[in-house]
Amino acid sequence: MAIKVNGSDVSVPDDPRVSLLDLLRETLHLSGTKKGCNQGACGACTVLVDGERILSCLALAVQYDGRAVTSVEGLAQGGELHPLQTAFVEHDGFQCGYCTPGQLCSAVGMAAELKRGMPSLVTADLAADTVPISRVEFQERMSGNLCRCGAHNGIMDAISEIYGDLTEVAE
After folding, report:
1. What is the predicted pLDDT for the residue at 36?
2. What does the pLDDT read at residue 61?
3. Do the Cβ atoms of 34 and 102 come closer than 8 Å?
4. How are strands ordered across the β-sheet holding 68-70?
5. Residue 32's closest CA among 91, 98, 76?
6. Which domain, by its residues, includes 7?
7. Confidence (pLDDT) at 19
8. pLDDT (tens digit, 9 = 90+) per residue, 35-86?
9. For residue 1, how many other CB atoms are within 10 A of its CB?
10. Boundary residue ending a domain (73, 104, 121)
C-alpha cells in the first residue's frame, strides 16, 4: 500500500489511527502543513488529494492508499514557487504565516472547483455551467480557512490576481 505524496510513493502507516496530518508532519517531516485546531475548524491543515482540498487532521492516512496528496511543499515545481505563492508574497497575504499553507492549498483546490462549475452557498444560479467569479464567491469558498492575524485582504488580493477578476463584486 502506498500514498503518493508530492510525487513520491510513501508507505501507508501500519497503525490505522495515524492521521494524514501526522503522517505528513511526524513521519515525512513535511512541516508546511500546520496543526491548528486539530478538529477541522480552522483550515490550517488543508492539503489536496487528487486535486481536491481536504482537512488532513480529520483524515486517516490509510484512507488515501493509492491516491495523490499534495501539501504546500508540493505546490512549487522545479524550484519555482507556484504563482499563488508568489502572489501571497507580493500582496502580503500573510503575517505570522501559520495559516498560509492551508490558505494556499485551499485556494488551489477552490480554483479547481470553480473550473468544474461547482456552486457554493452564495452561487445564485445552481443550474449554470459556470460560476461567476466575485469577491463574495471567493470569500465564501475560503471561509473555512481562518487567519487570526487579519491578512484576509492580502489573501483575497493574491487569489484575485491569480484566479479571477474581482472588480465586479456580487452583492
Report:
1. 94
2. 98
3. yes
4. 8-11, 2-5, 68-70, 46-49, 52-55
5. 98
6. 2-73
7. 98
8. 999 999 999 999 999 999 999 999 999 999 999 999 999 999 999 999 999 9
9. 13
10. 73
Q: Which positions ≥6 away from 88 have C-beta within 8 Å?
A: 94, 100, 103, 104, 154, 155, 158
Distances (CA, A) of 23 to 9, 50, 135: 13, 17, 35
Residue 89, domain CATH: 1.10.150.120
Residue 9's DSSP bridge partners are 4
For residues 126 and 96, state if they share a domain: yes
Same domain, 60 and 34: yes
Q: How many domains does the chain contain in total?
A: 2
Structural domain includes residue 78: no
pLDDT tens digits for range 105-159: 999 999 999 988 899 999 999 988 888 888 899 999 999 999 988 899 999 999 9
**Which phi and psi angles does 167 have, rounded to 5°?**
-70, -25
pTM of this prediction? Answer: 0.92
Q: Say if residues 170 and 137 touch (Cβ distance below 8 Å).
A: yes
Residue 168 lies in a domain: no
Nine cell digits for residue 37: 485546531
For position 43, which CATH number holds?
3.10.20.30
